[in-house]
Each structure stands twice: as structure tokens, then as C-alpha cells.
Amino acid sequence: MPAHSNEALYHEALRYIPGGTSRLHYHFAPYPIYARSASGCRLVDHDGVERLDFLNNMTALIHGHADPAIVAAISDQLAAGTVWSEPGAAEVALARAMVERVGSVEQIRFANSGTEAVMLAVKMARAFTGRNTIAKFEGAYHGYYDYVQVSFGGTPANWGPEEAPASVPTTAGLPPSILDQVAVIQYNDPGQVDRLVARRGNDLAALIVDPLSVRMGAPRPAPGFLEYLTEVTCRHGIVLIYDEVISFRVGFGGAQSRYGGVPDLTTFGKVIGGGLPVGAVGGRREIMSLLDPDRVDTKVLSGGTFSANPLTMVAGKAALDRYDAAAVERLNRLGDRLRTAGNAAFRAAGVTGQITGDGSLFRILLTDEPVTNYRSSVRRAAPTAAMLALHANLLREGIIVGKTGLGCLSTPMTEAEVDRFTTALARALASS
Ligand SMILES: Cc1ncc(COP(=O)(O)O)c(C=O)c1O
Fold first, then answer.
1. Beta bridge pairs of residue 399
2. Does residue 331 contact residue 360 with C-beta atoms inside 8 Å?
3. Residue 1 has pLDDT above 80, yes or no
4. What is the predicted pLDDT for the residue at 24?
5. Which of 270, 271, 307 to mutate to test the pocket of ligand 1 (most atoms within 8 A of CB)?
6. Which atom of ligand 1 is nearest to the CA of 213?
7. 87: Cα separation from own chain's centroid
8. Which has the minimum average pLDDT: 35-44, 145-154, 210-219, 354-363?
């Protein structure tokens, strides 16, 4: 076995890192591919195999790999220092770009990951309302913060009745008291929202929603659902948090500009860091002012040695500058092309499955049930092993997607790459 082949690296990694990986989502049998280099929408592994990358660091790279404008921005910044204690102009520029872009965002604060952003937004909601409980939708992933590691991987054995989902720990190590403080409801079900606020409305600090949760199977919001959440949370004094860490890319002003509703706070990550670690919380000035260090009364403390570091800030600004309305529109149309042809490939192969999602985000699911919430994406789905086999076949066909079927597009892609994807999918389905 060559010294730096995928297999050799994996066996070496096993000696030093639990399970050989720091990233659970990219762990699969017999061993993951190890990236050696990447450019645009192509990635070469340590066995020398080149593939089209439809995962893009879990959807974070809107312009693919080593985008020249982002590389230039980072290189210029490198020469001026990687990180300073002092704030810099790039932080102000990225903040301004986000405020100008996202309608509900009057001010923004940066962090280092989407998880941190969610953690901060929840804390701000508690401070603002003086309440403790939060509510989330079943199956939605919001990072690995204790209060949101609840009910994103439930199964029929533990998820409780559909009309009253149980709060289920999704990791070991959660104090049981957390489960009492996290209410779980079904996406796209206004009746459940009503029952929740009737029961616990006065205790609820926040309702957190990912408008296009790929973890949930990527159901689109039903018409009027997000507006309804906006109205109900406003009536009951609950802070509405949109988690746009992943869904931001589907609209120029984020998912909220595509689907509607007006959140009090929005969390961001991934794309807005231009390929470097990032998170952010933005929203109404009245709530954001809780972070103002000059404030004398209730104040929420956030920190982070590397928060708003200039490398991330310049990379994020360079990424956003070229992800303008026309680029968003073009990529979204390519996404439609991929879903249409991909769904046709499933039908032609006679395999039960579909491609869900919207804009440039997609998810391959091995169920034909229309997906409106988490349960509809999993209850009739083929066993996990079938998805893993399809994932392995796609890798063999030269296509990288996530092992759960997560995928996305990047701006270097054209119709040609999308058509290569659907041809590869047809071949992968034929050999499944
Ligand atoms: C909707 C959503 N929220 C939060 C997170 C956590 O972000 P990070 O991985 O940067 O901590 C993710 C990550 O995939 C996400 O998809």
C-alpha cells in the first residue's frame, strides 16, 4: 500500500484520532477518501483519483475550491497578519455587506462556527425574554451545542407520537434537564405550533427554524408557514431565530428573502466565511444591543480568540461580492436542472427515491414519500446501508456527495457538470 494512499492515511489516523476522524459526517467504510488537492469543482484524493465535488466542505464553498479571488484576498491578508487582537476594516466591510443584503439584519456579530452562532443566539433570546425554554423542529440540525442536540436523529423506537414528538437526546453526555427545556414540534404543521404556544408560550424564549433543513430531508416551507411562525412568535413575545447556516445560499438575502417570514435573529456560517471557519448572529438592533459592551444593564457576553479574524473576513467578503443576485439565480436554476434530471434517473432505474431540496442545495433520499417534515423523509426510506451503497457507487462514478445524500452546487459548475452528475447517478443506481 503506497505510504500516502487513502487506505494508508486512514490506518495511520486510527492510531491517533478516535475512529480516525475529527469529522463524523465524513466517516464511512471501508475508509474515507483523503483530499490531496482541489481546484474549482474538482478534488483529487490521495489515490490520485479526481472527482466532481458536490459536497464542497459540507456546502460551505459557494465558489468551489481555491477560487482565485478568494485566494488573492487571503494571500494579501496573510502578509499583513493572520489575526490581531484589534478589530480591522475587513470585519466592518463584511458586517456591512451582510446588513445590506439580509433584510431582517440590522446588526451582526461574528463567531467561529455555526454551532457558536446558534449558542449565542439562544443565549441572547433567553436574556431578551427572561425565559428559558426553546423550541425546535424535529429532525433539524443546528450544530453540536447541548440545547439543540435534541431530536435530530430520532427513530420510531424513541420519537413518540407524530402529533406530540418526544424530546430525544441525539448524543450521549446531555444532562437530562436539557430535555425539559427543549420542546420539539413537526415542521410545516401550524397546528403543532398553536398547541405548543398554548401550552408553553409564556415559557418560550426562542423558536429556532432552519427554513430548508437538509438534515430533515430538505422539505420546502409550506406556503405561509414561515409567515405564520413570524406572527405567532411576535404575538407571544418569543424570539424567532432562523438558522441560515446552510440555507443562506438559496437567496441573495438568504432563505428569508426566498421564502418569507421575518426572524428576530438569524444565524449564519459556511458560505459567508469564503472557505474559512465562520459563524455569525444578526438581527434586530434591539436584541443585538444585548451584545454592546457599553451596555450597563443585562448584557450577553460572547468572545472567541479567533472571532472576526481578518483572514475569514476578507475571504467571506470576496465570496459574497461574487455571489450576487445573478449568480444566486444561475446556481438555483442549475439546482432545478439537477433535481429534474436526477428524479427522472430514479424513475428510469425503477429505484425508489428522489432528490429533494431547493436552489443549489439538494438531498438524495431513498423514499418516494413526499417530504414535508422529518418523519416523512425517513419512515418509508430504504435502510441506511442502501444509501451508503449508493454513496459508494457515486464515488466510484467520480461524484462526491455526503454519505446521507447531501449535496450542493458551486459557481464553477455549469450544465456540463450537472449533467455528469445525473449520468453518474443513473449508472450508480443501475449498479445499486
Ligand atoms: C443548519 C445548521 N446549523 C448549524 C450548523 C453548525 O455549523 P458548524 O458546523 O459551522 O458548527 C450546521 C452545520 O452543518 C447547520 O447545517
1. 52
2. yes
3. no
4. 81
5. 270
6. 1
7. 27
8. 145-154
Q: How far is the CA of 48 from the centre of ligand 1 (A)?
A: 30
Record the cell numbers describing residue 231, joined without a space: 406572527
- Determine if residue 212 is left, alpha or beta; phi over 0 gives left, psi from -120 to 50 gives alpha, anything else beta: beta
- Tell me 382's DSSP state: P
**Which is it for strands 42-45 and 35-39: parallel, antiparallel or unpaired?**
antiparallel
CATH of 6-62+324-430, one of 3.40.50.10540, 3.30.360.10, 3.40.920.10, 3.90.1150.10: 3.90.1150.10
Predicted pLDDT of residue 154: 87
Residues 392 and 389: their CA atoms lie apart, in Å, by 5
Atom number in ligand 1 closest to CA 246: 16
Task: Share the mean pLDDT of the chain.
Answer: 97
Domain 68-322 in CATH 3.40.640.10: yes
Q: Give yes or no for residue 244 CB within 6 A of ligand 1.
A: no
Instruction: Compute CA 216 distance to the chain's CA centroid, rounded to the nearest angstrom.
Output: 11
Q: Which of 245, 247, 403, 408 to mutate to test the pocket of ligand 1 (most atoms within 8 A of CB)?
A: 245
142 lines ligand 1 (CB under 6 A): yes
Contact 379, 24 (CB under 8 A): no
pLDDT in tens, 157-174: 999 999 999 999 999 999
Quick one: DSSP state of residue 148? G
Q: What local confidence, expressed as pLDDT, does residue 297 receive?
A: 86
**Cα(335)–Cα(358) distance, integer angstroms:** 7
Query: For the chain, what are the domain ranges?
Result: 6-62+324-430, 68-322
Ligand 1: does its nearest atom lie under 6 Å from the Cβ of 246?
A: yes
**Torsions phi, psi for 84 (to 5 deg):** -125, 160
282: cell is 444578526
Q: Does the Cβ of 265 fall within 6 Å of ligand 1?
A: no
Query: Distance, CA 24 to ligand 1 centroid (Å)?
Result: 13
User: Measured from the CB, is residue 114 less than 6 Å from ligand 1?
Assistant: yes
Q: Are 231 and 279 in contact (CB under 8 A)?
A: no
Beta bridge mates, 32:
none
Single-letter residue type at 302: S
210 ligand 1 Cβ < 6 A: yes
